[in-house]
Design brief:
Length: 402
């Protein structure tokens, strides 16, 4: 039976390396080989019974065409401030976002790229502002969002933001939107207006965010966190054939103590193919929601062949995006950047398949690089990395690996 061994230490002090303790883990992996042939068929959607001027003309959506988040907003109200900041923060978090530009739209029907983005998005975020209901495009987008979510069997969701309006405004209980919508009647007809009003009322009753009492930055972080949670963007893929050893995982979680302060390092050791990476992924998936920032670096040993500086850039890109990460000029500069970005944050970092102690030192060198509560997990075939870390600690080491 394959055996995984590792250590965990609490690094709440300013010492270069944490106190380590030996942990043992046993992983049982069953490998199942299967082959599947997936046939994709494009279907045409039936035309709506509503008036042609208010409906959405449908086209076949190519396979794989997908946005994760669709932002609906009134350009003149929020385009150059709140929406722009939210858009770039979502992109920085690795979310694929569609941001509509209503000024480029022509005609009366939603079609082309806009329709595809609406149909393929998983999360809709309408940003309700003072002049939102003045835009027929915004109203049509809302109606399509409601229709899309109702047919998605729970796969799509609407997360409304009430920017400078109250939910009652969107529910048409005040004059703000109630006066704006009738102005569209001549062009779109009374049936379309009723459709839009019903959609607004439904969305206004959904749980969302109100900007009142919050700064833009605070609200944006709340939205991004919720979106990542909904998308499970932080989860790593685990083979379906993986058989969880709950006692093994519970032991690791107990030693990590994700709700406690200090910085802790945990290492998993074993021969190649034994399941170290899968075990790290399972633990990562279980605890990632407890951290402000997360990073899982796969195959560090292989990536380091192209230069350790490139691995540093990949780590930093998880927290600040590739643009800033590309500014690293050397290994030392990379170490300084990692500390600068992470030392005030509670982060979770997994370094998979280390084969040299230099990799650990240059990517997660000292406990004071990271904010309190941070956890660093690494996997390795090389037991010398454990010994090097243990020997560099000035504290007495208990249960030192043999």
């Amino acid at each position: 039976m394959p055996v995984l061994s590792g250590f965990v230490g609490d690094c709440s002090s300013e010492q270069d390396w944490p106190q380590m303790g030996l942990i043992a883990a046993v992983a049982l992996i069953s490998i199942i080989l299967a082959s599947m042939l997936v046939l994709r068929q494009l279907t045409r959607v039936k035309k709506s019974r509503r008036s042609s001027e208010a409906t959405l003309s449908k086209e076949d959506v190519p396979p794989g065409y997908e946005y994760e988040v669709f932002l609906s907003f009134r350009r003149s109200d929020t385009r150059n401030n709140f929406t722009d900041c939210l858009y770039h923060r979502l992109r920085l978090a690795g979310v694929h976002v569609f941001r509509d530009n209503e000024e480029l739209r022509v005609g009366k029907e939603i079609s082309g790229e806009l329709l595809k983005a609406l149909d393929k998005s998983q999360i809709y975020i309408p940003i309700f502002s003072q002049n939102y209901a003045i835009s027929s495009w915004c109203l049509r987008e809302i109606a399509h969002m409601v229709e899309g979510t109702s047919k998605s069997e729970g796969k799509k969701e609407i997360l409304p933001i009430f920017y400078d309006v109250d939910p009652d405004d969107v529910k048409l209980k005040t004059k703000l939107y109630k006066k704006a919508i009738p102005k569209h009647k001549k062009k779109f007809g009374s049936d379309a207006l009723k459709w839009w009003e019903d959609a607004l009322a439904k969305v206004a009753h959904l749980k969302g965010w109100e900007l009142k009492g919050k700064g833009h930055g605070e609200l944006i972080e709340l939205v991004v966190g919720e979106v990542l949670c909904k998308l499970n963007a932080r989860n790593m893929d685990v083979p379906e054939c993986w058989v969880e050893n709950h006692h093994q995982i519970e032991d690791i979680l107990e030693m990590l103590e994700v709700d406690s302060n200090g910085v802790r390092f945990l290492g998993i050791h074993g021969i190649g193919g034994i399941g170290k990476t899968v075990l790290a992924k399972v633990v990562f998936n279980k605890i990632s929601s407890h951290f402000e920032g997360v990073c899982f670096l796969n195959e560090v040993r292989e990536s380091s062949k192209h230069g350790l500086i490139n691995v540093q850039k990949m780590l930093l890109a998880s927290f600040v995006g590739p643009v800033i990460a590309d500014h690293i000029k050397g290994i030392g500069d990379g170490m300084n950047w990692i500390k600068r970005v992470c030392y005030t944050k509670k982060v979770l970092i997994v370094l998979d398949d280390l084969d040299k102690d230099e990799q650990l030192k240059k990517l997660a060198g000292k406990s004071n690089w990271f904010g309190s509560g941070s956890r660093i997990i690494f996997t390795t075939r090389n037991l010398e990395i454990f010994k090097t870390q243990v020997e560099s600690s000035s504290k007495e080491v208990l249960n030192q690996p043999k």
